[in-house]
């Protein structure tokens, strides 16, 4: 999968950590903007690769960035007097590095794990030096100012990590596959939280003229649990033998892809694939070899389902290559599946960021003849209503 570090510099990895909050997201976008012509590509790579560790607000900011919509920047207090722990240790170290860089000893609080008076005074000195209101509290803007200074040196950037949220097991997923429904409904204790477009197979089997092996099958009704997720590969689907996002290169006139740190041939006599592919299968419209592979039928991530018997289901939740080409676009129609559950890729990642697709989450496929419940229809009407001016 494309690595944002390769496109926005090694410094981005310092901000990713265990969680990506909205302050991290803003700074990652700013780093991406330093690489001419690759801002959008880098933001999409971040969303695909790290949605599972993003706060929902961080994901929403990145999605707005793709749409060129200016969002309201946060200005919240992250650390204050009396706080203790690893985050305070990192703050004190970052201020010390900033003091050395700026040649101002007042900014250096010394080592420690307590946000004491000395740390508060040092932070106030830094805020005053940078033209920010000297509150003595680490707010969103102060964090960005510290890191702006630190990017001028080799000192580690400051990343303040909050505790990861606990999984809410009162959330349940319901898929209504009928032609007039095609919705994934997220409920918590009976209340509708979210609704996403989702499309399964047809209500009746239909032959796929493009495939000798598979037809369009109904998505099986039943209750499942999410097993986990991965960049899915399959020997049964020709274009899905190579993982989505795998790095590509030419060697000795043949195409290689990188998987688990190793370069492997996809074409030619040395191909490791069950059904060796051809060089033309990888070339872009202009005839060149793209940097990463994006034709896998299962998109950048597939979520596997477990049946009540404990067996892995033969269908899964995933985006499509057509959808990946339009990442962040909510307007295109989802393609009919061969039994799987299709989602738009950005919707899939948003659901990951919100914790809806956690391993063990209940997922129920309803009958094709089941209508959407009335409260879901009301939710959709309210969401689509134009906003009233203040």
Give a structural overview.
By secondary structure, this protein is of the alpha+beta class. It folds into 4 domains: 4-66, no CATH class; 77-150, Orthogonal Bundle (Muramoyl-pentapeptide Carboxypeptidase, domain 1), CATH 1.10.101.10; 171-233 and 296-382, L,D-transpeptidase catalytic domain-like (Beta Barrel); 248-286, no CATH class. Helix content is 28%, strand content 18%. It is built from 11 helices and 15 strands. An 8-stranded mixed sheet has the order 5-4-3-15-8-12-13-14. It has a 3-stranded antiparallel sheet with strand order 9-10-11, with no helix packed on it. The longest helix is centred in the first third of the chain and has 17 residues, at 86-102. The two termini are 44 Å apart.
- The mean pLDDT is 92
> For the record, what CATH class of the largest domain applies?
Mainly Beta
CATH architecture of the largest domain: Beta Barrel
Q: What order do the strands of the largest sheet run in, or round the barrel if closed?
A: 5-4-3-15-8-12-13-14
Find the CATH topology of the largest domain: L,D-transpeptidase catalytic domain-like
Secondary-structure topology with pairs:
Layout: H1 4-8, H2 12-16, H3 22-32, H4 39-50, H5 56-66, E1 77-79, H6 86-102, H7 117-129, E2 138-139, H8 140-150, E3 171-176, E4 183-188, E5 191-197, E6 206-207, E7 215-216, E8 222-230, E9 248-251, E10 254-259, E11 262-265, E12 302-306, E13 312-318, H9 321-325, E14 341-342, H10 345-353, E15 362-365, H11 374-384
Parallel strand pairs: 3-15, 13-14
Antiparallel strand pairs: 1-2, 3-4, 4-5, 6-7, 8-12, 8-15, 9-10, 10-11, 12-13
């Amino acid at each position: 999968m494309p690595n944002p570090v390769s496109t926005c510099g090694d410094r981005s990895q310092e901000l990713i950590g265990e969680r990506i909050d909205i302050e991290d997201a803003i700074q990652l976008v700013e780093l991406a903007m330093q690489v001419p012509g690759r801002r959008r590509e880098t933001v999409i790579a971040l969303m695909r690769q790290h949605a599972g560790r993003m706060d929902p607000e961080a994901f929403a900011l990145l999605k707005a960035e793709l749409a060129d919509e200016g969002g309201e920047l946060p200005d919240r207090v992250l650390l204050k007097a009396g706080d203790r722990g690893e985050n305070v240790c990192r703050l004190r170290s970052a201020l010390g590095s900033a003091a050395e860089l700026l040649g101002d000893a007042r900014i250096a609080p010394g080592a420690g794990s307590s946000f004491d008076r000395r740390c508060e005074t040092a932070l106030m000195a830094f805020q005053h030096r940078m033209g920010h209101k000297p509150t003595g509290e680490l707010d969103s803007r102060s964090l960005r100012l510290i890191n702006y200074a630190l990017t001028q040196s080799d000192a580690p950037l400051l990343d303040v990590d909050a505790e990861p949220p606990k999984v809410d097991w009162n959330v349940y997923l319901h898929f209504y596959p009928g032609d007039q429904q095609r919705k994934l409904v997220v409920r918590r204790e009976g209340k509708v939280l979210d609704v996403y477009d989702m499309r399964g197979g047809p209500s009746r089997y239909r032959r796929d003229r493009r495939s000798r092996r598979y037809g369009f099958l109904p998505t099986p009704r039943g209750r499942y649990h999410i097993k986990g997720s991965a960049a899915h590969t399959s020997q049964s689907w020709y274009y899905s033998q190579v993982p989505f996002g795998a790095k590509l290169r030419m060697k000795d006139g043949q195409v290689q892809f990188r998987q688990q740190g190793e370069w492997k041939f996809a074409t030619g006599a040395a191909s490791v694939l069950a059904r060796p592919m051809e060089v033309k299968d990888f070339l872009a419209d202009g005839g060149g070899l793209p940097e990463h592979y994006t034709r896998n039928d299962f998109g950048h991530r597939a979520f596997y389902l477990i049946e009540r018997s404990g067996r892995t289901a033969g269908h899964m939740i995933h985006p499509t290559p057509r959808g990946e080409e339009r990442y962040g676009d909510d307007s295109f129609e989802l393609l009919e599946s061969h039994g799987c559950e299709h989602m738009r890729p950005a919707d899939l990642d948003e659901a990951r960021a919100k914790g809806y697709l956690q391993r063990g989450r209940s997922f129920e496929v309803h009958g094709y003849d089941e209508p959407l419940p009335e409260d879901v229809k009301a939710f959709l009407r309210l969401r689509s209503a134009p906003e009233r001016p203040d």
